[in-house]
Specification:
Organism: Comamonas avium
Distance between the termini: 91 Å
Shape: flat
Radius of gyration: 44 Å
Protein name: STAS domain-containing protein
Structural class: alpha/beta
Number of strands: 11
Strand order of the largest sheet: 1-11-10-9-8
């Protein structure tokens, strides 16, 4: 070996002695060796390099964590758009990859925590604790990257690519969506709180059944503590009632409240009357309720506020809209445009209006619409034209329009046939019964012209619609399908309701079929019909399966 190499070797030995603590003894001798000064400079440079390496490592770890966070976001996005089974596999694989990445990061940080001048044995002791905690094998340790000045962290292939491992079978319950499909058909369990509503519905009292169910629901929600199972049963019964009668307007807010209360998807809307081509029951039930007729009496001075109140009251009241002008003496000019717009809207829309003592309104308007009299403003003429149009008086409209053209030398609004109907009584109160009889006759003619023959359901497939009276034709068609040793499934998904007579006949038929050795099963019953079957006693001779979705 050359002399230079020997000198270099002694220099490195001094550096190692300084690192291990042996340099303190040498410094005590009090000799100012030039080599020792050079060693201190080298040590300072090494410390600077160490700080620089640590800064680089911190940046590299920050980059590694950023890549890992981006990858987690992408995986979760793909998993959310995938099939539920694929999403579960992606989540399990992502959890495995995340654990592996965390283990590597912990091992590297443990390696960094050791001083760079420590011995390998000490370094192994420092790293040993996290390795034992995470159970890394030797192959995983060999894959750890060695970080330094010139190193760059690259994302692990295992962290980017999905792990090719079989998805372990989980003992957790299935998702809510699949559970709802399974629960859509299950053996019916009666609930006493539904019996009264079911009996009312069987009698045809739709509003009574709805009111009773809503009362039960409010009581259950207000109880302390809340019985969630009871609330769910009653809530489903209310939604079933809405679907049975075809009341979508009432169904939607109830479904939204259901989803907010239980934190899961509400049952989907489906109208049974629409499926079988029958009219919705909620329309007929609401029409049967007598509503207070609209009666409006004009004040002596018709102002803007009075016109606004008239518009609001008329929009919230049922037809026919009856208005009396007996007390009218004058109209505020500020209210003329608003009243004209309101009358035009009435004429353009479909509705029935009744004007009593209409001569008072016509006289007030005539006083302010004299031919060739410019003292009154044009809005008076436009209001008079709007009133004549609503009253279907085309001849009078044309005469007033001609006077308007002569007075102001402008073209008047052209005559347009109104879409509404107005019964006018110039003196005294108008007879509304005449209008009601004419309206009923017209409605019957329209219904007869638009009526189409409804498709009769296949009675051999199950029960459907509203069954009242003797259902023997249905039962004969079902009995023809029965076979001994096989369960006869009677589909009731399109069954709206049935009365006591029909239910009693079905009870007797089910008992006879059971005595003859046939097994019956009524499927797809909604909650109210299933409860009514249970009240009658059909469950003693046949299986009842209700929908709960």
């Amino acid at each position: 070996m050359q002399p230079d190499s020997g000198k270099s070797g002694s220099f490195l030995n001094k550096v190692m002695h300084l690192v291990r603590g042996s340099a303190a003894t040498t410094g005590a001798a009090g000799t100012a060796d030039p080599d020792s000064l050079s060693a201190r400079e080298v040590l300072q440079e090494a410390m600077v390099r160490k700080r620089r390496n640590e800064a680089i490592r911190q940046k590299e770890f920050a980059q590694l964590r950023l890549l890992r966070q981006r990858h987690e976001t992408d995986v979760h996005t793909v998993a959310a758009q995938a099939h539920p089974e694929d999403a579960l596999s992606s989540l399990l694989g992502q959890e495995t990859r995340s654990t592996s990445t965390l283990q590597k990061i912990d091992a590297i940080e443990a390696q960094m925590s050791g001083q760079w001048w420590r011995s390998p044995a000490h370094l192994a002791a420092k790293v040993g604790k996290p390795l034992t905690h995470h159970k890394l094998n030797s192959r995983q340790l060999s894959d750890l990257p060695i970080l330094g000045e010139d190193s760059v962290v690259q994302p692990s292939v295992a962290a980017v690519q999905p792990a090719k491992q079989p998805v372990p079978k989980s003992s957790a319950p299935p998702p809510v969506a699949s559970a709802s499909v399974v629960a859509a058909m299950r053996t019916f369990k009666p609930h006493p709180d539904l019996e009264e509503a079911a009996i009312l519905f069987a009698h045809g009292d739709v509003e009574g059944a709805r009111t009773r169910l809503l009362e039960q629901l409010l009581q259950s929600l207000g109880a302390q503590p809340v019985d969630e199972e009871k609330v769910a049963v009653i809530w489903h019964a209310v939604l079933d009632l809405c679907r049975a009668i075809g009341d979508e307007d009432a169904f939607e807010p109830l479904a939204i409240d259901y989803a907010e209360h239980f934190g899961r998807s509400a049952p989907l809307w489906a109208s049974i009357p629409d499926r079988i081509g029958e009219p919705a029951l909620h329309c007929t039930s609401r029409q049967a309720v007598q509503k207070r007729q609209f009666q409006w009496r004009s004040p002596a001075m018709l102002t803007v506020g009075a016109v606004t109140a008239l518009r609001t009251a008329q929009a919230q009241a049922p037809q026919p809209w009856s208005m009396s002008w007996t007390r009218l003496a004058s109209i505020d000019e500020a209210a003329l445009p608003a009243l004209t717009r309101l009358l035009d809207e009435w004429a353009n829309g479909r509705g029935q209006f009744v004007f009593s003592d209409a001569c008072r309104l016509l006289q007030v308007l005539e006083q302010h619409t004299l031919a060739q009299d410019h003292s009154n403003s044009a809005p008076w003429w436009l209001l008079r034209l709007a009133v004549l149009r609503l009253m279907h008086r085309m001849d009078a409209y044309e005469q007033v329009a001609l006077d308007y053209c002569v007075t102001y030398e402008v073209s008047p609004p052209p005559w347009m046939e109104p879409a509404s109907y107005c019964l006018v009584q110039e003196e005294g109160e108008a007879d509304i019964s005449v209008l009601q009889e004419a309206s009923a006759h017209s409605m019957l003619q329209q219904q007869g012209a638009a009526a189409q023959p409804a498709l009769l359901p296949d009675r051999s497939k199950g029960l459907a619609g509203v069954i009242e009276g003797d259902p023997q034709d249905w039962l004969n068609a079902l009995a023809a399908q029965a076979k001994r040793g096989q369960v006869l499934d009677i589909a009731c998904g399109n069954l709206i309701r049935l009365d006591f007579v029909a239910a009693g006949s079905i009870l007797n038929w089910a008992a006879d079929m059971q005595n003859q050795g046939y097994a019956l099963r009524f499927t797809q019953l909604h909650q109210l019909v299933a409860t009514f079957f249970h009240v009658i006693g059909i469950h003693e001779h046949a299986t009842l399966q209700a929908t709960f979705a």
